[in-house]
Write a structure and sequence with these properties.
Layout: H1 8-11, H2 14-24, E1 38-43, E2 50-58, E3 65-72, H3 80-83, H4 85-94, E4 97-105, H5 114-126, E5 139-141, E6 149-157, E7 161-169, E8 175-181, E9 190-196, E10 210-212, H6 220-227, E11 240-244, H7 250-258, E12 263-268, H8 271-280, E13 289-293, H9 296-305, E14 310-315, E15 326-328, H10 336-345, E16 346-358, H11 361-374, E17 377-382, E18 388-394, H12 402-418, E19 437-439
Parallel strand pairs: 3-4, 3-5, 11-12, 11-14, 12-13, 14-16
Antiparallel strand pairs: 1-2, 2-4, 6-7, 7-8, 8-9, 9-10, 15-16, 16-18, 17-18, 17-19
Helix pairs in contact: 9-10, 10-11
Length: 440
């Protein structure tokens, strides 16, 4: 007998299931999901809001620990280890547990202590325990508290939907500001480190004002983008830059501050994002940093028509339609004609940098095929523990000597930036060349 029902009539037939279980006999029968973990939501009896999201993670490997609960502190649920099925599998393996319940603490709720969370969960999680588990359930976490999350703003953009700006305390007690669009609650749109604003006047305790620390790059793919400046044969320290996608504005502000002779033009579709960047991420525009509210595709086409040129074009824009399996850029930017336009926009020996985040293998292959048809010299740098990959497309017909130039430039670039920042660890001082894969 084929154990799978042939149609909906089989599925609802008593005779089918009687025959099914007679064939199964004593063998265990399990329902499994193909990719994602089973997810359950637990509401607060006081507010009716969803307070906990619980992911059931099962492993085939046998372990001494049969069942446990892992509480993710507030603000860290966006990390790969906790936000993806693959990451949660790795977490379960790390704690050597056969069935692990990974619990997310959702925003818009109050969590006074880890003990309160344990009390809320203790009765409910037992219902998820394997029948063979009779021991007391261990509840694990990364520390002794539930973390700190302060929602500074919650609003809605006509183009991008609902969003929050929140301040989150990291595990090393640094404070970070994040922009998150709630259509994709596990993707950080923008992140910046906060610092106390310097002031000459003595203020009362607790009244210090916070501001963005533009010496620090919070996103690994932004570090990779800045590292890519080392590919420039000319004007590495004073490039003209076109950036498609603003976000919180931390990338253009970093370039503006640390490359005092550079000029940056940013194209952003959503005017609400510009407002957020100015109000919450300290974005300041001037004659060296300009923001155009425009469709990026139309802007690029118009710039080509007008004969504009840049040293670097950076594509760092998110894709709103996540059903395609690509977080960025939107697929229209990866069409051959648009890639050709970007090539026309850069000077000879110039550079196009693309932040590619694609989980769809077919779409990924198609994107690579189109890139290779337009750009003759390309390198990529994968971002560890992220789906992001930064692709460097160099406008040259003579690839000889590029890596030697890049090695020399990278030494100059890191030395230049280290003198201009207060952090010695902001930059990955490993040679850029050692982190790259040539695309052929």
């Amino acid at each position: 007998m084929d154990l799978l029902p042939k149609d909906h009539k089989d599925f609802g037939s008593k005779d089918y299931w009687n025959e099914f279980f007679s064939k199964q006999k004593s063998q265990p029968f399990e329902w499994k999901l193909a990719e994602d973990d089973i997810c359950l939501e637990l509401c607060s009896p006081d507010t009716g809001r969803i307070k906990y999201k619980m992911f059931v993670v099962d492993r085939k490997e046998k372990s001494k620990m049969k069942f446990a609960v892992f509480v993710v502190v507030q603000g860290r649920e966006t990390e790969w280890l906790f936000s993806t099925p693959q990451g949660r599998q790795e977490l379960a393996a790390n704690v050597s547990c056969e069935r692990l319940i990974v619990v997310h603490l959702l925003r818009d709720n109050v969590y006074s202590s880890l003990e309160e969370v344990k009390n809320d969960l203790s009765a409910k999680v037992l219902e998820l325990a394997p029948a063979s588990c009779k021991d007391q359930v261990p509840i694990l976490s990364l520390g002794d508290d539930v973390g700190q999350r302060d929602i500074r703003c919650r609003d809605k953009s006509e183009l991008s939907g609902e969003y929050v700006v929140e301040d989150v305390l990291s595990n090393n007690d640094d404070l970070y500001r994040r922009l998150i669009f709630l259509d994709s609650p596990y993707i950080i749109q923008s992140e910046a480190k906060l610092m106390t604003a310097p002031t000459k006047k003595k203020k009362k305790k607790g009244s210090s004002k916070l501001q963005i620390d533009f010496d620090y790059i919070a996103c690994d793919h932004h570090i990779a983008i800045i590292s890519g400046f080392a590919f420039l044969k000319y004007k590495m320290l004073c490039p003209s830059v076109l950036l498609i996608g603003l976000g919180g504005g931390t990338l253009p502000m970093y370039i503006h501050k640390h490359f005092p002779d550079a000029s940056v033009e940013v194209v952003e579709l959503d005017p609400s994002v510009l407002d957020i960047a100015k109000k919450w991420f300290n974005l300041v525009t001037d004659n060296r940093l300009k923001v155009h509210i425009s469709d990026g595709l139309a802007f690029i086409q118009k710039a080509v028509t007008n004969g504009l040129k840049y040293d670097i074009v950076i594509l760092d824009v998110d894709n709103k339609d996540l059903s395609l399996g690509i977080s960025g850029p939107p697929v229209a930017f990866l069409e051959t004609t648009m890639l050709e336009n970007m090539l026309k926009l850069v000077y000879d020996s110039g550079l196009v940098i693309i932040n590619l985040a694609c989980r769809n293998s077919e779409l990924y292959k198609e994107a690579y095929s189109k890139l290779k048809s337009v750009f003759k010299v390309m390198y990529s740098r994968k971002i560890p523990a992220e789906v992001n990959e930064v692709i460097y497309c160099i406008k040259t017909d003579d690839p000889k000597g590029i890596m030697e130039l890049t090695k020399d430039n990278y030494t100059t670039l890191t030395s230049f930036l280290e003198k201009r920042t207060t952090y010695s660890d902001v930059f990955d001082v490993v040679d850029l060349a050692s982190c790259l894969t040539e695309i052929t």
